[in-house]
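Exercise 3.2. Students should predict the tertiary structure of the chain below and write it as structure tokens, then compare their answer with the key that follows.

Predict this chain's 3D structure.
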Amino acid sequence: MISFRGTGILSRKIFQASGKRPHCNMNDQPLSLRMQAVHGVKWTGTSALSTTALNYARLVVLIHLLSPRDFGLMGMVMVVVGLGQSFSDLGISFAIIWKQDATSEQLSTLYWLNIMAGVALFGIVIAISPLVSAFFHEPRLTNLMFWAAFIFPITAIGQQFGILLQKNLRFGKLAKVEIASALVGSAVAIIAAFLGQGVYSLIWGQLTTTACTALLYTYMGWRKWHPRLMFKPSNLQGFISFGLYQMGERLVNTFAFNVDYIVVGHFSGPGPLGIYMLAWQLMVAPSVKLNAVMTRVAFPVFAKKQTDDLALQRGYVELLKMLAVLTFPVLVLVGVTAPVFVPVVFGPKWNAVIPLIQIFVLLGLFRSLSHPIGSILLAKGRADISFKLSLALATVSSVAFWFAAQHGLYVMAWTEVAVAALFFFGIMEILRKLIGLKHSSYLRAVAKPTLLAVAAGGATYGCYRILRVLIDSNLWVFVGVIVFGGLCYALLVAVFERQYFLKYFWLFLGREKKEGGSSA
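Answer key:
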């Protein structure tokens, strides 16, 4: 299955300014905001690791059963589905989190609005499928898009229940739903591929994941709140203005992050697009996924501190550092080992993806540092800034990628890195003006994780060059460099970041390490 493309964490410093113990809805025991955030990180981290591992395992299996053309066709379908998802709730789901005092009547009206939007999108996607097929010069897309369109009404059934769980920081339940749905969806996709379903195996897997997610969200949320049979337009007041900006931002953001697929598919066809997508799925999708689940924690927590810029600065810096620590070493090590990783894991028919993987190391780094801004903008109620930022990115990306795609995949990849870098520096300036976050604080948060990842990557590359001379087998070279790279990074962390990891180790256990080494 193909990932949609977009779109605890906080240290105790964030919460020292307030001694409040906010009430957790849905019959939870009261917890401090700090411990709710830490609890959220534990579960979102579990979800991210589990679903990422499942995604990689599924990809490894499917890559041997399907062709690059199959993945390219699915990528074309998911571009349309991803754009449609921008309209799925008219942008008001995040408004439910931002607006802390939504009534039951308002929520009921919003729920049925979601249902109507899902049904409408189902019809629209089916109606435009011949146009999409003509644009990509692929007649098979018409039937593929018909089945994929069922994602919209299915999603609408459980979407608001998931948002309410997120608003109330019920990250344990969210994580369980995500893991269970990913597991079932992966199983269906693999079984269908073994049965010779081709690209349709990816469709069936995506629909299964969507259906499981919707049903489980509905089951968990229905016992605490369920919609009444009512729809009053007056109940939408206060949500629509926020939602329209958010919907517009999501639409242009989704377009901006899919325009590379669009132009590569249009100029090169599904085969090269499948190669390009594999590189993106390996190097960028995991960091995007991690950013999404981390932001899921950060947004509602930041929303409760939306008037305290100092707390937001501290929280954002902590978020950046954690993302850098988790993603940078993986990106660098995969890039270094790509010449043996790809033929061993995917087979020699995918060797064309190796240079793209190495280029996308930089893309993954910039994307990891850019995505979290959304949680700050939404917490501050500035969906308008998010919309304008995404609009600028979509405009620049469209022009740059349209010309780059005509010169081959590698030119396209380097152009995408350049645009991501430009976007990253623009984000730093926005945060400086919005919450007073200095550029030096931003860069200092990621400096050490970057240096450690580069040092481990350099040492691993040296090991790779030596093993290539000593050993003929790609498999044993791959095993050797992976083990060496992991141990090298672990040693560097133990020397230079021991206190940072120990701090979060104790927090994740629900305790704080006291001075002198004890815990409480």
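Discussion points: Residues 31-241 form one domain. The CA atoms of residues 3 and 285 lie 7 Å apart.
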